[in-house]
Amino acid sequence: MRSGFIALVGRPNVGKSTLMNWIVKEKVAIVSSKAQTTRDRIKGILTKTDTQYIFVDTPGIHKPQHLLGEYMTKTAIDTLKEVDLIVMVIDGKAEIGKGDKFVRERIEEAGGTPRVAVINKIDDLTDEDIEKKKIEIKEKLGKFNEIYTISGEYGINVDEFLKGIKKYLEDGVMYYPEDMYTDMPMYKVITEIVREKILWNTREEIPHSVAIEITDVKRRENGKDCYNINIYVERDSQKGIIIGNKGKMLKKIGIEARKDIEQVLERGIYLNLWVKVKDKWRKKKPFLKEMGYIIE
Ligand SMILES: Nc1nc2c(ncn2[C@@H]2O[C@H](COP(=O)(O)OP(=O)(O)OP(=O)(O)O)[C@@H](O)[C@H]2O)c(=O)[nH]1
């Protein structure tokens, strides 16, 4: 048996969450076309007959712009020092830029941890594009132990990638029981589902300034739990967008979120969503602490 921790790193939007979801085939990481949606270290665990892969999906590494950003980057760098392997995911469809170089520098800070590069989104690339990308990586990002080419969305070459990275894992250990696919607490899974639905439904209109909190769970007489969940935004205008015309948007978000949550919990629930304005919440440390984004 081999087992080990693998950090998936890369600038926002390269496809880390999509890849992890494909690998563990369960809803453990949020997928969105928006940048920086994954705020927490989430482990996706895949146990095969003789290998257990524990994936740590790091927050999108980027230059800190505000308090929440600082927290996300620090978490990501700490992760890199602890793992057995760093997998740097690169968007094969985009030119390698400042964001990728910034991530590469953070990998250097992790010291001697082995690192491989993954060119993602090859479903949209020609063989020639892929070869060019490999050269670009060597020129702009330097040396990796290996370079893999995959598509996380369609699962192309993902098995080969998994077999290939087995050698970096520790021999003779198994960290988690076989049937476990995430150690993310259930409340976090639930709030992430709500956040995902908001981001999907509101498209470009709602920025990342949204935080979700379960305020209470009450059991109704028929035995079903009723979840009350607050959605915090920064401005009245954002509140308006989420609620929508005659409350239609909030209703849609609620229905979609409830369905996914019921699937995860394997039972029926009631879900009440409340939208609240907290001005500039990202800059307010006590509030961030309360929401679990800062641990001191
Ligand atoms: N064509 C193609 N698109 C992909 C692939 N993987 C991901 N995408 C798209 O790329 C976008 C970003 O994917 P995510 O998985 O959210 O990216 P991420 O790196 O986890 O982003 P953050 O959580 O913001 O760090 C989404 O629109 C995906 O549909 C792929 O293999 N092929």
Please characterize this protein's 3D structure.
The protein is an alpha/beta fold and 296 residues long. It has 2 domains: 2-171, P-loop containing nucleotide triphosphate hydrolases (Rossmann fold, 3-Layer(aba) Sandwich), CATH 3.40.50.300; 186-290, K homology (KH) domain (GMP Synthetase, Chain A, domain 3, 2-Layer Sandwich). Helices cover 37% and strands 23% of the residues. It contains 9 helices and 10 strands. The protein has helices at residues 16-24, 67-82, 98-109, 127-141, 158-165, 186-202, 236-243, 248-265, 285-290; strands at 2-9, 42-47, 51-57, 85-91, 115-120, 146-149, 170-171, 211-219, 225-233, 269-277. The strands form 2 sheets. Strands 1, 2, 3, 4, 5, 6 and 7 form a 7-stranded mixed β-sheet that branches. A 3-stranded mixed β-sheet has the order 8-9-10. Strand 2 and strand 3 form a beta hairpin. Helix 6 runs antiparallel to helix 8 (248-265). The protein is globular and about 55 Å long. Mean pLDDT is 82; it is low at 30-40. Bound molecules: guanosine-5'-triphosphate (GTP). Residues 10, 12-18, 31-33, 35-38, 60, 120-121, 123-124, 151-153 line the site of guanosine-5'-triphosphate.
Architecture blueprint of SSEs:
Blueprint: E1 2-9, H1 16-24, E2 42-47, E3 51-57, H2 67-82, E4 85-91, H3 98-109, E5 115-120, H4 127-141, E6 146-149, H5 158-165, E7 170-171, H6 186-202, E8 211-219, E9 225-233, H7 236-243, H8 248-265, E10 269-277, H9 285-290
Parallel strand pairs: 1-3, 1-4, 4-5, 5-6, 9-10
Antiparallel strand pairs: 1-7, 2-3, 8-9
Helix pairs in contact: 6-8
This protein binds guanosine-5'-triphosphate.
Guanosine-5'-triphosphate (GTP) is lined by residues 10, 12-18, 31-33, 35-38, 60, 120-121, 123-124, 151-153.
